[in-house]
Structure formats: structure tokens, C-alpha cells
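Sanity check record (used in CI):
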Amino acid sequence: MGKIHLIRHGTTEGNQGRKYYGSTDLPLANEGVDGIVQQALAGIYPKAEGELLITTGLARTEQTFFLIYGSKEHQIIPELQEYRFGDFEMKTHDELEHDPRYQAWMSDEEGITPCPNGESPQDFRKRAGEGFAKILELHKGNGKQERDIILVCHGGVISLIMATCFPKADKNIFEWQPDPGRGYSIHTIDGLAVSYDKI
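Expected output for Histidine phosphatase family protein:
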């Protein structure tokens, strides 16, 4: 049995202001730094003892990683970065609700409408799916023994991965989203997700 640990970055200004942000490269807010440090001291995070360590390369994942694991060597998979909201970046629902472009994006149940200068939900699912496929390939290791992975990434990406791995869980994408600094440990057998624990 192997494990893939998914950890959401700590709180940022974007989280505090309930803003749409994905590609905006925000650092952690002071609250986010304190939260990660407290949770690390409480021992909630998986130990890095031979696991393959990965971030998405954005400041908030790099900073979260450093606060938990220090300067350990790690890989970057940019395909697992958060949804790209384009012109809606760093704006709130209240600021956008009367914008017809926003209304069109919000009302598209098929997920084919992109944010202006951003991506559509389908684009995001495809990109993040390709990133997770890389995770699964690395997890397979040499084919003889699965290699455990710790990934520090984003709430939307974690939700998508969990919904993909556990389609029968009867949860929507928003119910899967963990709080900042939290996440899931997925248990695998022969590369297939079979169960999970919350971090």
C-alpha cells in the first residue's frame, strides 16, 4: 500500500478577502504563517522520510512547504497550480456580480466558458488532470514498490483530485475542499486510490 499526501497551502490575503485568485502569486498572510507553524508543531503533517516532495512552484506553496519541511529538495509540477481566473483575479463576487462576462461564466453548467483571459473549468480539469497523471507516474516508482508522495498545492486542485479518485463518495467539488493548511492522505493499492484520511 502506498500513500499520496495532499496539503493545501496556508491562508493568504486572497483567502481572507474571499477573492477569486489562482495565478496571482500571493505569499502567505501572517495568519497563514502562524497557522502552518502551529499545525506543524502539533505534528499533523506526514513526515518526509524518503517520500517524493512536490509543490506547484507558486509562492504560497513554496512558503508552506518550507514552514513544514524546511529546505528539503523537492520537485515542481506547475500543471497543478490553481484555477486561472484571468480578468476576475483578485476580485470578489460582489465586485463581479453585475458583469455579464461573470454571469455567463457562473451560469455555464457545462464548464466550457472561460474567464476572460483565463481558463474554463474544462481547461482547468484537463490541465490539473495531466498534472495528477504525472503524480501517479512518479508514485508508481520503479514498478516494484510505490513511492509515497507529499504534494503541497491548492484547494481547487485537491478538490478535483479527490473527486476524481473517489467518485462514489457523493461529495461535490466544494465539499472536498480542505481548509488552508489541511488536506488528505490517499491510500493506494497498485496505484489505485482505495481510501483516505484527513490531514
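The helical segments are 13-16, 30-41, 59-69, 93-96, 100-107, 121-140, 155-165, 173-176. If this sentence no longer matches the regenerated C-alpha cells, the check is flagged for review.
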